[in-house]
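agent> Task received from the user: take the single chain below, predict its 3D structure, and emit structure tokens. No templates, no multimer pairing.
agent> Plan: (1) validate residues, (2) run structure prediction, (3) serialize to tokens, (4) report one or two observations.
agent> Step 1 OK, no nonstandard residues flagged.
tool_call: predict_structure(input=
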Amino acid sequence: MTGVGESVTDPYLWLEEVTSDAALDWAREHNEVAIGRFAASDRFRDLESRILAMLDTDTRIAYPGRRGSRLYNFWRDGAHPKGLWRRTSFAEYAKDDPAWEVLIDLDELAASEDENWVWGGASVLRPEQSRALLSLSRGGSDAKVVREFDIESKTFVAPEDGGFFLPEAKSDMHWIDIDTLYVGTDFGPGSLTDSGYPRITKRWRRGTPLTEAETVFEGETTDVAVSAAYDHTPGYERHFVGRSTDFFNSEEYLLADDGALRRIETPTDASVSIYKDWMTVRLKSPWEVNGTTYPAGALLGANFGEFMSGARDFDLLFTPDAHTALHGRGWTENHLLLVTLEDVQTKLYVLTPGPDGWTREPLADAPPMATTSVMNLDPLEGGDEFMLSTSGFTRPATLLTGSVGGPTEVLKTEPEFFDADGVVTEQFFAESDDGTMIPYFVIRHRDQVGKPGPAIMSGYGGFEVSRTPAYSGAFGMGWLERGGTWVMTNLRGGGEYGPQWHTSVLKANRHKVYEDFSSIAKDLVARGITTHDRLGAVGGSNGGLLMGVMLTRYPELFGAIVCQVPLLDMKRYHLLLAGASWVAEYGDPEKPEEWEFLSKYSPYQNTRTDVKYPPLLLTTSTKDDRVHPGHARKMAALLESEGHRYWYYENIEGGHGGAADNKQSAFQAALIYEFFTDMLM
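)
tool_result: status=success, residues=681
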């Protein structure tokens, strides 16, 4: 048998029945095998304990979300595994041991309501900060229950008392004022897109049933989602509607008080941000305006009111080059802050609009081989203050605070969670099959330089997601301390070099992502960093698909593979959960010309009985309602029928992120490093 081909009836469709007794019994039976093999030793228990202690310690930085003078934080530790939602003032937060006002204890709530509640976020009413919409999921799924919460009394506002409430769904809600919301949810048959997200957005007034909410906009079932939002900026109060026609294209509208919609005439694949008088447009493809062609990856600025009146006068705020891409942007009260990537290393700038145009200056120094992010911008109430978070592979996170034009000061630092003494970070470039140079980072002890040893390479390569240096106590404890080498790859499909790094490998060109990863694997061996039999690979979600392709197309390059919450059956992915939203990335298997290229790499259709595969650990989550657990289940069953060597672990709770609490996170991390240690050390 060679995979589950087009003409073969899939014998494992029953494993797509997520919560059926038969499928869950199958998962638990396979879990026991993996647990018995990798989670029964003292070494495993010691690593799991260390990782859990790291996740539970109060020495971690409590990263805040700023809303005016208040800083909000969701916090988990050993005493509060489900977590606390809390807040404090900036002055209090700056202390070594700040006092927090606890708003809700999720452990107490879950116990009192006998629900496995997992925190899904909070939308706080501005500027009053008196009410919030809390999103809670059962077990960590993307679908969430939404409940109104009175922050002052620290109680839920019951629906019978006029409180806003939505049952479990992939909903979208935004405050207009204390008595009015924009809401998109499952309103009944026909109200969701094929991807399972809201197709209709409505205006919902307190005291009225959801069935009487006023429809503002309807999209098509083939869209990914629609939504509406309200800009609370004083003097610039505006309503907006957005329609995502696919994962990368959307139409944005200005909604007038009379309900009329005016299209914001920017390219559908551009990212548009509007603040006060200013509109910024980050281009994903070239755009010709008034005889000038602006390149993909550029950032443009314009007066929004004048643009809506027909003017097309732009300031070129950022221009990409072969080494530099725009990574992020955000406003303070008076300035636009930019984060760029220069060969996957961050640089920070501040842009200031004025009567004579825009000025640009460095914002702050960013250390090499590290990632620095701008956080907690609040242009409505926070003035020109900002926070910076910086970390590297061996550099624990540091949180700094500052104001544009002034110095930055260290606010919080995290301790080291593993012994990084002598560990060095290097950057290399591998030549892919078509000649493109692909960067990757190598993290290892200096004593390993010049001596091939066990190595793990991680990869993603999709959806314009940039992978940048970051500290991980888990890989430090579980791998670097054991003498292993860690490799982070920056494949095409990500955004490390701008939008073309992503768009160049869509659909029919997807094979180039897999060529990039395999080329790095070969380069690691050619440089003497490792050998193929001691080289592991790990990836999740889209990276799980990458791992499936490495298993079936490049098995000779690897000594072990971990494939997490993966897509694997590309014949049916668009029919499962959110899969339809990714057709713009991968292609539509219903179209023969697109199934032609999908079929060449779809792992579930390309297994072989006459090839020896490296040992494989497949992991997924029952509660993952984004990437269907059926992908991993069916692949495991197929590999088992073909006699291949693999292990399978399914977390019964946890969603797409894989874990609903720190204990589960520690267990799964330890399981992965024990697998690699057994297979590669």
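agent> Step 4: summary for the user.
The first strand starts at residue 65 and ends at 67.
agent> Done.
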